[in-house]
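Reopening closed ticket. The problem is back. First fold of the pair:
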Amino acid sequence: MLISTFIGLVESCCFSKSFLILRRVRSTRLEGRRNGPPGSSLSCSTESTYMQPKVRTCLGFKDEAEEAARFYVSVIPDSIFEGAFRREPSGPAILVSFTLAGTPYQALNMGCDTNRNEACSISVMTKDQRETDELWEKLLANGGAEIQCSWLKDRYGVRWQIVPEALPRMFMDEDRAAAARAFQAMLGMVKIDLAKVEAAFRGESA
């Protein structure tokens, strides 16, 4: 079961004692919403396997798991905040589940500082420059930082790649010289300027 596995992970990693309380939890609340006000809620057992599908990426936070998940759901289109496990119905979440544009995630409050780096990131394909700009600005808000070549760090330290969908198509084009020009143009950017990459691909001066 998902929660049994979660408890075993907590014990084996010697996380904060607060997480071991999960062994004694018998019921929790599942709260669901879809990009809007909180919806209906229901009681569920800690043995429940309601969090589907079978595999999810889990992001660790000190104590901002629910806040971060709700923020991400508000930023990425077609995303859902699915549920939260709590010690008490009105208490803070310990483990939350959500999807970003259909991709499943969990967020875990670990009770300690987390070390993040570029070894793990969330990559988002955007349809055009407008969507690229919009997501970029939203994810940078309130403490984020730009990195390089489509990468940024949000206010929680999570790394993101905001990539226009035309970019990999150019990089994999059969015209290898054009692909190389596009790739070289991208290397000098922070946020992707799609018009400049396309101009380089065509062999035009910026």
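Second fold of the pair, where the issue appears:
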Amino acid sequence: MEQFRNIGIIGRLGSSQVLDTIRRLKRFLVERHPHVILEENIAEVLPGHGMQTSSRQRLGETCDLVIVVGGSGRHARVVLEAADLAGLPVRGVLSDALPAGETFFGTHRVLGRLNRLQDRNLLQACRFHLGTGDQAVRRSTADTIEAQGGRLGTIIHPAAILSPSAEIGAGTLVAAGAIIGVSAVLAESGLVNTGASIDHDCRLD
């Protein structure tokens, strides 16, 4: 790696798996390269890292190689499209990966970082849906929202088929082409992806 003068690390936060990957990558690089720079948002969630930090823009200017760790935001686009097609008003998006004021997937505005889940006014004004396919993150974030007094919003794509007797937990996404059978039960913040089928009397926890 001698050919790289400076190596930067950027991550899409919000997943314990992403953070674990970033920690292992940092250790690997530091053992082999003297000039590793953390993007400032990553640095905030890695206390005691003892490394140089930089804004995302400066990383692009000073680094020969920038490594991006994390999801692509594709699942969030599935969520937003389903909400749009279902006619649900979307106030905006919270993201640690995008700057406030930027637009995401069309006209959806980034309202700020995930720490705005501590904002009581926002919690009271909106219902929240989780734009990640990582079920562990969905559950933990849903618990955080509800513990703060917030509410979860359920999104059902208009091309999904649901039995009237099915029970759908708050915060669940039922994507396009999914089929939910008679007396099926979906737990809170569940995820039934595109074309999936939950048959009669099944329970998805």
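Update: turned out to be a display glitch only; the data is intact. Helices lie at 16-32, 40-44, 56-62, 74-85, 120-125, 135-147. The chain has six helices and 18 strands. Please close again.
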